[in-house]
Amino acid sequence: MGKQIALLRGINVGGRNKVPMAGLRAALTDRGFGGVATYVASGNVVFDDPGTPPEKTAEAVEAAVEEEFGVRVGAVVRTRDEIAAVVAANPLPEGAAEPARFLAVFLSGPAPADAWFRTADPAAYAPDRYEIGDRVVYVWCPGGLGRSKLAADFSGRKLAVTATARNWNTVLKLLELADG
């Protein structure tokens, strides 16, 4: 059986949108999800593929979180194979060598044509770099994420799609959990 991975946006950040991982696992299990496992407290959930398209699964996960915890957050869901494709397609291998400074910003749909990062001058963010992939933006901040204008812009800008970032270590761990 395949796996799906839910990436919840903005939970357990700065004391807001508190969702305990044990409670999240129980809430999803109670709603029929099988093999539910979480990774760290930032809303990473791996579970058996329920046989629904990831977009429909995201809606079910969002509804479960809102019903159970009173927290309204977005979720991006990918299949195990889609996460593997993100890893395989990485256009910034130098970023992967510094996984704590390298992000995958997962988008719930294709990046809109007028998205700020499609029209921005990438040189304005140097030495930080980004590349747009298939419903993902790869973001490498060699000077660190905390001082990066690029990382801040990806976390603070509104898009026409749900977006949530994970560092490369987390992406690789989620793939490992989906495989294991």
UniProtKB/TrEMBL annotation:
- Kindly give the SUPFAM superfamilies that the UniProt entry links to this protein: SP0830-like
Coiled coil spans = none
Instruction: Name the PANTHER family for this protein.
Output: BLL4334 PROTEIN, DUF1697 DOMAIN-CONTAINING PROTEIN
Q: Name one Pfam family in it.
A: DUF1697
Q: Mind telling me what this protein is named? A: DUF1697 domain-containing protein
Q: What is the species listed in this Swiss-Prot or TrEMBL entry? A: Streptomyces synnematoformans
